[in-house]
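A protein record pairs a chain with a discrete description of its three-dimensional fold. The following entry can be read in just this way:
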Amino acid sequence: MVSYTLISTVFAAIATAVSANMAPSEPAPNTIWTTGQSSLIQWADDSTSPPLATDWKKFKIDLMTGDNTNQIFLTNVATGLDGTAATTLNWTAPDVDVHSAIYFLMFTSLTKATDMAWTTRFAIVGADGVQTAPANAAQPDKSTLDGKPIPWGVGHLVNSASGSAATNSVIASTAPALSLSNAAPAATSSGAAVSAAGASQAASSPSTSQKSSASKVLATAGLGLAAVAAVMMAM
């Protein structure tokens, strides 16, 4: 398990380094995955420039947990995905030991490491469906989403095998309509991070054009521009 600590300084000048065309839409706010069951992951081209074919011909998805400035990698979901050939992935939810809305997915381009996108935080529960509230009501860096604190916590895989890379079907389709609301629920606030120590990760959960408002994208992902700065400085 690797924790990625991000630089806290915000650089507005590099806001455009965040991907403006990869738009994850599932898991969405209030999504609950059940261990052992097939779970939907979905993304789309948000129709802004550059198109997915430019930087997202090859990308990976990682399951993450933790707060916005101390991201914790749990397992790789899939690697080598082609964003222009498919927009849906089915993945079996792993067994975790904290059943709460403290998990999120990080999308990272393998063509351009500074292109990243995040989903909102979502819950993973056991067969009984019981879910607890996130352990922390607000982010350490005081970041908010639509003026509201962003809850978070730290989860763990029960065993590494349960979180192995996806071998499930990748379904080709046209770009789906985005289903995320601008204001994520308190327990499922958008979350994410950027890997700085040799492994690239990350993603935002856009419900509107990311490029038209870089600051909105970062807020929706529950991040500051520090995330991008960390990657740029680590290169």
Notes: The radius of gyration is 16 Å. Confidence is low (pLDDT under 50) at residues 1-19, 161-235. Residues 102 and 153 are 5 Å apart (CA to CA).
